[in-house]
Amino acid sequence: METRATRVGLRVWTLLVVLFLWAPLILVAVYAFNKSNIQSWPISGWTTHWFSVAWHDPDVRSALWLSVKVGLLATAVALVLGSMAAFAIHRFRFFGRESVSFLLLLPIALPGIITGMALNSFYVFAQVKFSIWTIVIGHATFCVVVVYNNVLARLRRSSPSLIEASMDLGADGWQTFRFVVWPVLSTALIAGGLLAFALSFDEIIVTTFTAGAQTTLPIFILDNLRMGQQFPIVNVVAFVVILLTVIPVTIAQRLTADTGLLRRDTRRTVVAETPGSGAV
Amino acid sequence: MSSDAARAGPSLRGARLRFSATFWRRPWVKALALLTLPVGAFVVVYIGSLAILFVSAFWTVDSFTGKLQHIWNIDNFRQIFSTSDPTYLRIAGRTIGIAAAVTVTDAILAFPLAYYMARLASRRSRAVLFIAVLLPLWSSYLVRIYAWRLILSSDGVLNWALNGVGLPNANIAYTNWAMWIVFSYVWLPFMVLPVYAALERIPESYLEASGDLGAGGWRTFRNVILPLALPGVVAGSIFTFSLTLGDYVTPLLVGGAGSSFIGNVVYDFVGINANVPFAAAFATVPVMVMGVYLVVARRLGAFEAL
Questions:
Q1: Where does chain B hold its CATH 1.10.3720.10 domain(s)?
Q2: How far apart are CA B243 and CA B297, in angstroms?
C-alpha cells in the first residue's frame, strides 16, 4: 500500500536511525586506539599503547576485578533465587501468585535511584558496613528478574508431562532434575546468567549508593570523567566494557533464539512479559 | 518401585525417593520451600528498604548535629512544593519537561524504523535490524553517554563535521540540548521494540480490507495502522519517560551548570548534604508522576502492547 517514495523514505530513515545508534559506539572503539592523549577529532594516529597502560594500571585492575567478582556473585544469587521463584510460579497456583511476579520486577520498574537510595538507607539503618556484599545485594535485586523471566518462559514452553513420565518410570527428584529438567533448562539458565552478568557489569546508579568507597569499573569511568583525568585509559576501559557486555548478550541471544526471548528482552520489556505486568 | 530401590542398593536411594515423594504428594511444601528464600529475601531487603525510605521522607535532620530526628512532619514536602522558593519546583519541571521531549523525539525517530522493520524489511534484514537495535540497548549505558561527550565537545566530531561543510561550531556541550540528545539516544531502543511488536501484530487482512473499502495509503495509515500501533507507542513511552525521570548520570556528565535533575538533587542530598529525609521526599515526585502516567497508559491499552 506504500508508494515507492514512501518506501524509499522509510528505508533512508531506518538507515539514518541505525547510524545514529551505532556511530557513538564505533567512535568509542576508535578513540580507544587514539595515539594522542588529547581528545580531539580526527584522532592523530593509531596505537594499542593505552591498552597495555590500562592493563598495568593498578586502579583499573582492582576495579575490573571487583566488577567481575560482583558480576559473578550477583549472577549466582540471581540464578538461585530467580529459578526457584520461576519453578514455584510455573508449577503452582496460589493466592498472591501475581504479586510475587510484581515483587520481583519492582527493582527494574522503579527508577534505579530509588532502589539505590532505599538500599542505602537500609544499610545505614541496619548499620551494615559497605563491602562487596552490599553491592552484590544491590545488583542481585535487579538481576533476579532476568533469570526468572528466562527460566519461566522456557518452563512454559516445556511439557509438564515430561516430569510426570520421569516420575512414573521410577526416577527420584534428583534424577528427574538431572536428566529431564536440566537439559530443557540449561540454555535458558546460561542465557539468563549471561544477561544478568551483563546488567551487573555495567551498572552504575545502584552501585554508587551501595559501594561506599569501593570502585567498580563503571565507577572508575564515572569518577575519571567527572575529574576530567586519564582520558586515554577511560577510552580503553569504555571499549572493553562495551565488548564485555555485548559478547554475553550476543551469546545469550543465540542460546535462546528458538524461544525468541531476546526479542522482548530489554531490561524493562522483559518485565512486561510476566503475568504481574498488568499491575505495574 | 521397591525392586528398583533394592537394586539401587543403599538406603540412600530409598531416602531420596521418599524425599521426592513427600514433595510430590504435598505440593504446598515444595511451593513453600521454593518461594521462602527468594520472596523472603525480597520482602526483607527490598520492600523493607523502600518502607524505610518512604517513612524517612516524613522525618527531618537536625541542622546542627546532622542527626536524624524521628519527628513526623511534612516540612520536606513543604520545601519542595514551596512557591516562594521555586528551586525544587523548577528542577522537577525541567526533569518532567525534558522527559516529555525525549519521549516525543524517540517516538518520532522510532516509528518509521519500526514500521520498516515490521512491514517492509525482508526476513534477513529484519533480523539484522533487530540486532542493530538490541545491542546498543545492552551495551553500557555509561559508555554511551561518554561517547556523546566525545562527539559534542568543542573539538569533537560534531564541530569537525560542521566546520567541514562550512558551518560554525555548535556549542551545545553541557546544555539542556545535549541532555535532550543523549537521553533520546540512550533510550531509543526501548521505544523501537514495543512499537515494532505492535505494528507486527496488525493482520495484513485489515490493510487489504481498508484498501478494498476504498481507503488510500494515507487514510489506511491514519485510520487503521495508527490506532492499532498507539498502544505500542504508549508502552515505549513508559520506558523513555520513566528512565529519563529517574536519571542523574546524564545531567551529571553532559548537562551544564543549572541543569540538575530530580535525581541529581536526590543524589547530593544522600551524599554530600547527608539529608536522606529530604532526598526521600523529593524522590517521591518521580514515583508519583510515574504512577499517574501508568494509570493513563493503562487506559490507552499500553499494558496489552508491552
A1: 87-304
A2: 15
